[in-house]
Amino acid sequence: MYLEIKNLSVDLGEFKLKNINLSINKGEYLVLIGPTGSGKSVLLETIIGFYNQKEGSIKLNGEEITTLLPEDRNIGIVYQDHVLFPNMNVYDNIAYGLKNKNIPSEEIDLKIKEISSIMKIEHILNRSIETISGGESQRIALARALIVEPEIILMDEPFSALDVSTQETLTNLIKEIGNKFNTTFIHVTHNFNDIWNLASKVGVMENGIIHQINTVSEVFSKPTNNFVADFVGIQNVFEGIIEDSSTSCAKVKISKNLYLYSSDEDICSKIHPNEKVTVAIRPENIIFSNESFESSARNRIKGKVIETKKSGPIVQVHCQVDDVILKGILTRNSFESLDIQKGKDIFLIFKSLNVNIIDTYTTFKS
Amino acid sequence: MRSKFELLFIGITVTITLIFFITIGSMFLVPSPEGFINALFSQQMIFAIGLTLSTALVSATIVILCCIPLAYTLSRFDFPLKRFFKIILDLPMAFPEIVIGIALLLFLGNYGIGSILEFYGIQLVFNSTGIIIAQFFVALPYATKSLYSTFNYIDTRYEFVSRSLGYSQTDTFFNITLPLSKEGLFATIIITLSRCIGTFAAVLFVGGGILMKTETLAVSMYLHLSTGDIDMSITAGILLVIISFITIAVMEKYTNDNRNQMI
Ligand SMILES: Nc1ncnc2c1ncn2[C@@H]1O[C@H](COP(=O)(O)OP(=O)(O)OP(=O)(O)O)[C@@H](O)[C@H]1O
Ligand SMILES: [Mg+2]
């Protein structure tokens, strides 16, 4: 194991981290989720060395780091609000971690050129921090952390202050970096998209403990307790085998008569027929219809309603399709106008874009 | 259209400020120009100005050097009885300066460690050393409080990032924390200087209020008032007002200029 945390406990008075165990391999991408106040940030800051632990041990790359000071651990951190040093310009922010290491300034220059071309921030190196946009700041913060080649990078809600399109760009950038440097990440988020897009493992925290930590498909399809099940929500997670794939689309066989189409370009180009994959479809992306109407959505499946659950203005509908159960949600209004009842046949329609192939981080890397 | 609420509050603000202005300003009208000039250039006044500024500079320097570690410790570190320490350091701000003066006099004088010190030829009261000690005790709590809120205001995550990049706590303090607190540090220096210059009761007791020896401007004002030398007394007062005005104006300008540069 590359990072191995055993029986870690931290006591902050009102709040305690209790008996944390986690291990990840080099190049893996762990996403931590959990309600606010569950201790995700405290866990990151304990790994990096800012809180004294009461018990337990942390091993990184074969070395016991439990008692090392933060400055001796070589772990990078990136925060939501970027915390760039306002008393330095962009260049000096990125160079900061190299300046204490006796590296000749020409070499620092070269390294900064390299990292800033990957991060596409060459044009702003001489700017001062106040003139930088949110997305640029996050690129700079990443560059600053990466340039010292840390053993692992911890990110605390790195995207949550950014607009959706910037989030997407940065997600791709992080994948690219992971690919290039085989970087190991721990990423705290409230956004499940980060799980679909990046995670190879996911951990669910509550009140200072980790309820479950495992591969994405394991956690979403087999939550170990009610808390995890509730927190990850109803999800459609299935294992399948690639039947056919091109650069832009993949056909995945889920069961004998059930095939799903996915068009996640990033992944489709990296997978091959007969590979085993896990796919996820968010319930809210499924449209219900009484007829199989023509639309741009590639997936049109007939199923039988086996259960309906009303909660407030929302209705959950479970449908049997071949060997599996697909779950969707509807508003009360559409539920009534479609006249959905137990035993009724219905069409489930969803775009291939909404069929996420997960476990991507390890899938596309291997 | 301004609301009644707004008009009322502006009215209160203007009235109270005017009362202050008139009260302080009226002092400037008391001495005749001739009397003012004579007092200003008298040997005694020049001595008082020199003594006030030199002792205040020395004590303010010591206060600043001490309050940096104090304020940082209180803001960042946890240790047993921390709350108790904080209360002790805040306490002198709550009671009259004269209490510090008498306590210091008792402690440093012949009732306290004075006789022991005298044996070694050291005297800490009734001289300028006494003045500096008194100014130190009066100003330190204010300086610590001011710098404490400055440090509290700086996000600790700047320091976390710096340390995660391999910098020790000491290097981080000098590379990141201090530069980010420069505005607050400057304000603290100004507050400290004006506290040191303006200290009266404590300086009177510990310094002894000896003419031409431990006579700071504030003490001079009091001594001359009690002997009926109004010109000398008011001139010392006017000088104190001018010095305070300059320090506060500098602070206002500096902090306004810098506000936009800080996060
Ligand atoms: N230095 C500290 N001392 C004492 N308690 C702390 C400290 N830092 C955080 N806490 C408490 O620990 C708990 C967990 O905080 P943490 O910031 O780790 O939550 P989180 O899971 O990151 O939440 P969010 O999703 O809102 O960021 C909170 O109740 C918080 O008040
Ligand atoms: Mg947090």
Report the CATH superfamily of chain B: MetI-like
Unique ligands: adenosine-5'-triphosphate, magnesium ion
Q: State which percent range the strand residues of chain B make up.
A: under 5%
Number of domains of chain B: 1
CATH class of the largest domain in chain A: Alpha Beta
C-alpha Rg of chain A (nearest Å): 23 Å
Short characterization:
Helix content of chain A is 27%, strand content 35%. By secondary structure, chain A is of the alpha+beta class. Chain B has 263 residues and is an all-alpha fold.
Characteristic key phrases:
heterodimer; A: 366 residues; alpha+beta; Rossmann fold; five-stranded antiparallel sheet; 11 helices; B: mainly alpha; MetI-like fold; 79% helix; 0% strand; globular; binds adenosine-5'-triphosphate; binds magnesium ion
Walk me through the structure.
The complex is a heterodimer of chains A (366) and B (263). Chain A is α+β, with helices and mostly antiparallel strands. Chain A is built from 11 helices and 20 strands. Chain A folds into 2 domains: 3-232, P-loop containing nucleotide triphosphate hydrolases (Rossmann fold, 3-Layer(aba) Sandwich), CATH 3.40.50; 236-365, RNA polymerase II/Efflux pump adaptor protein, barrel-sandwich hybrid domain (OB fold (Dihydrolipoamide Acetyltransferase, E2P), Beta Barrel), CATH 2.40.50. In chain A, the strands form 4 sheets. In chain A, strands 6-7-8-3-9-10 form a 6-stranded mixed β-sheet, sandwiched between helices. Residues 360-366 of chain A have low confidence and may be disordered. Chain B has 263 residues and is mainly alpha-helical. Chain B has one domain: MetI-like (MetI-like fold, Orthogonal Bundle). Chain B has helices spanning 4-27, 33-40, 43-76, 82-94, 97-108, 114-119, 128-153, 156-164, 169-180, 182-198, 201-207, 217-226, 230-259. Chains A and B meet through strand 6 of A and helix 8 and helix 9 of B. Bound molecules: adenosine-5'-triphosphate and magnesium ion.
